[in-house]
């Protein structure tokens, strides 16, 4: 097990790039596998989650190789995957397992999935339910968990699935199954979730229609059996990784940092909007569009923040950023209220519970409820050395390491190897900017 110790940071300054977006990286590999011809991927996140998706696709017969800084994926066309004799181990990745379950559901062979301790605790019924409606049989462990086997259906039925949660993982799993299904497969989501699947599949030639419904809901419909053209995916920087650097720069006095080439898809930008509402000095430059995604350079300077109430309609657009937002909230003037965030309880860890407990160990005034978290300030002077267990959750680990940079005493995060799932060069980048992180064993 790796531990990382975070000590008081110097002012952060410099210009950096964060690794490729995790959501787009998974999808580049998966959609590339379904194209006709060879897809090229540049800027792929080489984190464990994405590498597990790559390996799983290879086990399903897809040839993927790295040639200098590009990944080449030889697409087999929609419906062209082959049975894997081995169990697919998706490691820590909810996105990996859920998207891959949808992918194999409409292939007429069985696929068994497993994952690490964290993934095996996470709910898969949210994927099992819609896929079952399409006629796919799935045998899962108790409570609808992995390990599980998808008995792929050769004659799946198109459905319109009304998802109870705004989840891009659910939406993408159903659309992936719908690709190899006759007719039109639709998903209705209560609020728009990230739309990378729609953008990327459209760019490859799929027919996908998005219709706004009442009360902020929307319906996404996909026509089955498209001929998907091979693509060149140029993966932009991950805004969820950029959020940690942004937070550190906002907190540490004297900081001034530019993060180049960050994906600023409006369905991913909720954290940056909140930080601006809190008084954070953030500006964007060099706006461009790349593969249908808005890309910007983010310029952040140290700022004294004030607490806010996060608008609930913003929650899906920053679903992964609540751990780091609650660290920022601890240093802000006044309370920060985060409501309607029940989904955080079923992420890589129970992020409401783990953040509340962790922050309390620093003496932060926190109120926790089933689906809310309210963070008030704390007395930095009364904190002594603190140890936090990552709970197999990369974002918990990075959040508390950022917090450590602001304190006179050290913060030790155990189980910090989990950071490799999404941000392999986190320590190197942070230290290069002026942070004081030390890897121990
Ligand atoms: C993701 C969707 C989100 C997010 C996850 C990545 C994706 O999950 O938390 O880190 O790539 O589709 P939900 O769709 O379950 O909210």
Number of domains: 2
Please count the helical segments: 12
Q: Class of the largest domain, according to the CATH hierarchy?
A: Alpha Beta
> Compounds present?
shikimate-3-phosphate
Q: What can be said about the biggest beta sheet?
A: 4 strands, mixed
Overall outline:
globular
Structure class: alpha+beta
Radius of gyration: 21 Å
How would the blueprint of this fold be written?
Elements (H helix, E strand, L loop, with lengths): L2 E5 L5 E5 L4 H13 L1 E7 L5 H12 L3 E5 L2 E7 L11 E2 L4 H12 L4 E5 L10 H9 L3 E5 L3 E7 L8 E3 L5 H12 L4 E6 L6 H8 L4 E5 L5 E6 L8 E3 L4 H13 L4 E8 L6 H8 L3 E10 L2 E9 L20 H9 L5 E4 L11 H10 L5 E4 L2 E4 L10 E4 L4 H11 L6 E4 L11 H8 L2 E5 L1
Parallel strand pairs: 2-15, 3-14, 6-7, 10-11, 21-22
Antiparallel strand pairs: 1-22, 1-23, 3-5, 4-5, 7-9, 8-9, 11-13, 12-13, 15-17, 16-17, 18-20, 19-20
The site of shikimate-3-phosphate (S3P) has 11 residues, from helix 5.
Overview of this protein structure:
The protein is of the alpha+beta class and 441 residues long. The chain has 2 domains: 3-20 and 237-440, Enolpyruvate transferase domain (UDP-n-acetylglucosamine1-carboxyvinyl-transferase, Chain), CATH 3.65.10; 22-234, Enolpyruvate transferase domain (UDP-n-acetylglucosamine1-carboxyvinyl-transferase, Chain, Alpha-beta prism), CATH 3.65.10.10. The chain contains 12 helices and 23 strands. It has helices at residues 22-34, 48-59, 94-105, 125-133, 168-179, 196-203, 239-251, 270-277, 322-330, 351-360, 394-404, 426-433, and strands at residues 3-7, 13-17, 36-42, 63-67, 70-76, 88-89, 110-114, 137-141, 145-151, 160-162, 184-189, 208-212, 218-223, 232-234, 256-263, 281-290, 293-301, 336-339, 366-369, 372-375, 386-389, 411-414, 436-440. A 4-stranded mixed sheet has the order 21-22-1-23. Strands 2-15-17-16 form a 4-stranded mixed sheet. The longest helix has 13 residues, at 22-34. The termini are close together. Bound molecules: shikimate-3-phosphate (S3P). Shikimate-3-phosphate (S3P) is lined by residues 23, 95, 167-169, 172, 193-194, 319-320, 343.
